Amino acid sequence: MKAVYYQGSGTFTVGRGEILPPGEGEVRLEVAYCGLCGTDLHIAHGSMDDRVRPPQVIGHEMAGTVAETGTGVTGLRPGDKVVVRPLDSRGQTAADKGISHICRNLKFLGIDTPGAFQHSWTVPAFTIHRLPPDTDLKLAALTEPLAVACHDVRRGRVAAGETVVVIGGGPIGVMIALVARSRGAQVIVSEVNASRLAFIRRLGLTVIDPGQADLAQAVEEVTRGAGADVVFEVSGSAGGAMTMTKLAGLRGRIVVVAIFSAPPAVNLFDVFWKELEVLGTRVYEPEDYENAIDFVIGGRLPLADLITSVEPLERLPAALEELERNPSAMKILVDCRA
Amino acid sequence: MKAVYYQGSGTFTVGRGEILPPGEGEVRLEVAYCGLCGTDLHIAHGSMDDRVRPPQVIGHEMAGTVAETGTGVTGLRPGDKVVVRPLDSRGQTAADKGISHICRNLKFLGIDTPGAFQHSWTVPAFTIHRLPPDTDLKLAALTEPLAVACHDVRRGRVAAGETVVVIGGGPIGVMIALVARSRGAQVIVSEVNASRLAFIRRLGLTVIDPGQADLAQAVEEVTRGAGADVVFEVSGSAGGAMTMTKLAGLRGRIVVVAIFSAPPAVNLFDVFWKELEVLGTRVYEPEDYENAIDFVIGGRLPLADLITSVEPLERLPAALEELERNPSAMKILVDCRA
To answer: Is the pTM of this model over 0.90?
Structure first.
C-alpha cells in the first residue's frame, strides 16, 4: 500500500501509506483514482508551503470505495462507491454569515490536511457523496473539477439560449463550456494555445484564437450586437481581465474563475456603463457536487475525452511535470489502487 | 426669458431663451430650479464636446411647472409641479434586451439634446413625473441626483441591519449614505477632504478619513470581523478601487458608482476568494424617480442641508467654478425663473 509524500521545496517521495482506522464520524476509503489539479502544481512549485506540512500526502480529486466506517456513521457501507467533497467547514463562525463553503477557517482536504494520493484515505463522513454501484470510477475522479464548473455556471445563472464566452480553455474552462452548453447556451471558448485549440475543436465546441481573429467582433456578430450574456474569465491573464468587460452586453454577468496572483487593470467604466455584474466564484456547494455526479453517471458530456492519461502512483512527480509541459493535457489521473 | 448657452471649449454666454411650442406628445415646462451636476462640469471642461452641440442649453436636474401640453398628452395640466427624468430611450433596439434606461441609443436630455438652464423647456411627456401641489421646488430639484442614489442603493440590495461603506463623500456619495441609512443600514462614509468631513459629520453620518484612521480595521471592528455587506465606490480613485474589495465580507456587494476615466487595478483575487459581487450602476429607472420623490416630499432626509446656494441664471459660469473650487459645495441650484 503506497503513498506519495510531498517533502517541501517541490520534491516528492514514494513511500508506504498509513492505514488510519476511522474515528467517530469518519470513514476510511480505498482510493481508486485521483486527478492532478493546478493546485497540486502550485504545491509542487513550493508556492503553498505555508499551508502544506511536509511530509504530507496531497491530492483532492478522488473517487474510490468505502473500506470501513467509524461509529455514528450511517448510510454508508463497505464497497460503496464514493467521491469526497474536500471541504471541512467545521471552523466557521458567525462572521461567515452561513456561507460555509468559503468560510474563513475552511480546511481544504489534500492541502490543509492529508490528501488522496494514497490507497487508504480516512476522511470525515460529511465530505462523502455516494455514487451508483455501476459508476466508472475513472470518470468519477472528474467530479471535483466538474463541481467547480457546475458552481461557476450556477453563479453565472447561465440559461438556455444565452451566449456564453469562456476566456481560457484549460480543464476548468473546457468543463465550464461543456456544462454551459448542456444548459442550452451557445458557447464560444477563447484560447491561444494551438494544441488546446485543436483539442477543444474536437469536442465540438466553438473556439476562437484571439491572436488570430477578432473575438469581440465575433461575439458582436453572433449576438447581433447585444454582446455576451455571460463571460467566464478562466485565463488569469491581464488580457483576459481587460477583455471580459468588453465582451459582455448590457447587464451581462462576468464570472471570475481564475486565481489572479496580482490585481489586473479592470475597465470599471464598462462595468458602470453597461451595469455589468462581476461575480467571484470559488469551489462548490453540495448541490454542485450532486450536479457534477449527474453528469458523471448521465453520460451527457464527453468526459472520457478529458482524461489525458492514467498513471501509476509512483509516476506522480513525472505526471505533474507532464501537466506543466503539455498545455493540451486536460486531466491526468493517478491510479491509487496499488 | 433668459437661457445660458454652452458655446464649446468651456465657454458660456447668457442669452435669450426660446419658447418652443409643445408638439404631439410634448410638454412645455417653466423651469423653477436646476441643479449643477458633475456632468455639467465635464461639459464646461470641453470633455463632452462630442455629445454637446454648441450653442446648446445644458442642465438636467430640474424642477418646475407645466406651462402647456401638446396634443395627445393626458394627465398633466398647466400649473402642475413636475420633475423630468431626462432619459429618452426611443432609440432602443432588440440588442438592448429591454434594458431601456441604459440602451445603446439613449439620449440624455441636457447633454444630447437641449437642457434646463432656461426658463422655458419643452420635453417629451414620458419624461415627466408629477409632484404634489405643495412640493418645495428647491428640494424637488434634488430629485435627479437622489434618484441616482436610490438606483445605486437598489442595485446594492441594501437591507436593514447591513453594514454599508461609501467611499467618497461628494454629493452622490452623501445621498447614497442617507438613502442607505433610511433603509436601516449602518453606514460609514470614507472621505479625505477636511471640509467635506466636517459637513458629513454635521449630517449625523459616521465618517472616516482613511488618511488618518485605518478604514479596514474600523469596518472589521464594527462588523465583528464579517466585513461590509455593501461597499459603494463613488470616489473614482485608484485607492478606492483597490480598497473596495478589501472592505467587503463574504459574498459582499460592491457597487461601482464612480465614472473611472482609466481602468484601475482591481483585486480580482479578493473577488474570487470571497465570492464578491461587483455591480455597475448607471442613472435610474422610473421607480427610482418615484422613490426619490417620496424622499423629497416625505421630509425624512436632511435634503435642505445639501443645498449649498441658489444662484441666478446669469451666474451659472461662476457657480460652475465655485462647484469645482469648493469640495464642500454639495448642490448649487440655479434659479431659472427669470
So the answer is: yes
